[in-house]
Amino acid sequence: MARVDYYNDPNAPKANSIAVAVSAFIQDDEGRILMIRRTDNDLYSIPGGQLELGETLSQAAVREVREETGIECEVTGVIGLYSNPNHVIAYDDGEVRQEFSICFRARYVGGVPRKSLESKEVTWVSRGKLEALNIHPSIRLRLDCALSNNEEVYFS
Fold it and tell me: Residue 121: phi, psi to the nearest 5?
């Protein structure tokens, strides 16, 4: 399903739903960041997705990382809680979702990067190469929070 992210856009459609989403910031032993290139909007992102019934938030993050990247991880902390009502995501089925996402810090456990239905590219990216990637501002905020080494949890 295709999606369009609207970020601080006065012409954005009005939200008609909200769902709990999770994402995971993972670095390898060399400090590179696990990134995907999404199939639904062609943007680079950290892996993540929607919480499913019957799972915890951290289980959802681990599952989403595995499904989208083939990488196994372990959640080690919370980076931030993102709930900007000026960030809405419009899907081609008519749903317009207000952002509500928990971003976790996770530790790489194993696995080999592989593409999925949701990721057309899975790659480890050095910090210096992030600027060259087409990344949505909401994901850049998560990356900035994760890389700031600030111990406090970000929230909006």
Answer: -150, 140
Instruction: For residue 19, give both structure tokens.
Output: 């769902």
Q: How does pLDDT run across 64-78, given as a tens digit for each residue?
A: 999 999 999 999 999
Q: What are phi and psi of 128, to 5 degrees?
A: -65, -20
Token pair in block for residue 141: 């905020």
| pTM (predicted TM-score) | 0.95
Contacts with 91 (C-beta within 8 Å, 6 or more apart), sequence order:
1, 2, 3, 97
In a domain, 89, yes or no: yes
Instruction: Report how far residue 76's alpha carbon sits from residue 144's, in angstroms, rounded to the nearest whole number.
Output: 18
Neighbours of 39 (CB within 10 A): 16
Kindly tell me the burial class for residue 32, based on how many C-beta atoms sit within 10 Å of its own C-beta (0-12, 13-18, 19 or more).
Answer: middle
CA distance 80 to 90: 23
Q: Which domain holds residue 72?
A: 3-146
Is residue 152, in this structure, part of any structural domain at all? Answer: no
Q: What is the pLDDT of residue 14?
A: 97
Q: Looking at residues 27-53, what average pLDDT do you find?
A: 96
Residues 119/33, Cβ–Cβ less than 8 Å: no
